[in-house]
Amino acid sequence: MYFISTRGGKERVSGASAIVQGLAKNGGLFVPEKFPQITAEELDGMLTMSYAERAAEILHKYLDDYDKKGLLAACEAAYSRFESPDPAPLVKIDDGVYILELFHGPTCAFKDMALTLLPYLMRTGCDMCGIKEKILILVATSGDTGKAALEGFKDADGIKIMVFYPSDGVSKMQKLQMCTQDGSNVNVVAVKGNFDDCQTAVKTIFNSEECAAALKQKGYLLSSANSINFGRLAPQIVYYFSSYLDLVSSGQIEMGTQIDFCVPTGNFGNILAAYYAKLMGLPVRRLHCASNMNNILTDFLAKGEYDARREFYKTTSPSMDILISSNLERLLFEVSGRNGELVAERMNKLKTDKVYKITPEEQAEIAKTFDGGWANEDEVVETVYDVFCDTGYTMDTHTGCAMKVAVDWFEKNKKDTTNMVVVATANPYKFPQDVLYAVTGNDVRDSFKGIKRLHAATAMKVPASLAGLKDKPVRFSSGVSPDKMFGAVMDFVSD
Ligand SMILES: *Cc1c(COP(=O)(O)O)cnc(C)c1O
After folding, report:
1. Which end of the chain is less packed: N or C, by CB atoms within 10 Å?
2. Rg over CA atoms, the chain
3. Does the keyword Lyase apply (predicted)?
């Protein structure tokens, strides 16, 4: 399988190259040349497999340049680091409504599903491509990617990792998780600005030949652990298959029955992986794209116009506080009939004018599968509270946004009997004060008091990795403005 750029051109690379490089040379994102198909027999065969075995099957369809046994061993190692024996358990909370819990990894957010595996894909990929330089991974994070990437890549051979986060844009717990990170090859820096400023500055470094040359002189090659990297997307496709198979093997649905997913969305990576699963042949009917107050995707899906000329809100679901959703570019590529020139035009327009429009045909194509909705801050609180009261289930604020969108869907479509899987992206203890407030109305300042009280209210198990943060020393406290980021990168590789 080869990978090509969303912005056209002749570049055509192997899976290993796509992962090591991160971005295509013309600034586009790598996409598979075509979508591998999963047959009904293959799906049947996967029913009795473990999560890791299912993962190796699906990953190898895209990454057929990697050794399949090696992939399986890597998946087994990655998912053995999860707290639960099943890395992606499905919880039924009502008739036809399920929660897919993706937060049982080392850093308690769904990013672990891919970032526990990416170091293997990257390291092995470098060897396969005969790369002699060391790798420098740059990450822009809205909170959860940074920690998951740090944890995945810490002390990895021949790799350094540097994470930039918006100084006021992440939760206290997220900040503490990152700034106490151990490992000899890691660095964490706060950036004055919001996530989009961070992400744009990191992309600028990626696209700059000057930066690449300066780093090469120091013996480093740049790569990315953000969801623009196909190595992030591929492992995310797996849990859509796996949850479907779990519904079948537990007798909740019959093989072939279509289901819906509702996904809390920021950079459009998670929900795009669901779309890829559908394009591979998974029986998915609709994908519900859930946003918070930064509801640019809701508007885009309704109007066919992506308009970033709007206020940016800081919300209680910070990992979704994003106005420029990078992975939407991959969806545009598909619905434009894989027209790279058109995608490039729009991405340039987004950069210069902060707005672009798609054609009515493209809009119709998207609407065949996607619809969008959003939750304001009060609605998140109400939804988390209602679900807790009605079912005893505690969800985090991001998942709360998705749940609200799912509830609205059922309100509007009362006769719809299609099963809905709501994707849960973070452990509630990652946002303890906000979840505590939603569940009990109590307001506490301190995150650890929040954890204690949330535990008292819900009796839910506290993940050791979060409780243990209290006693860890803070290692990183520096900050820079976006224009000084590359300077900080050079300092880091010169150490
Ligand atoms: C990253 C993240 C999201 C958004 O996922 P995208 O792939 O960026 O759309 C939602 N919820 C949580 C908790 C996250 O960490």
Report:
1. C
2. 21
3. yes
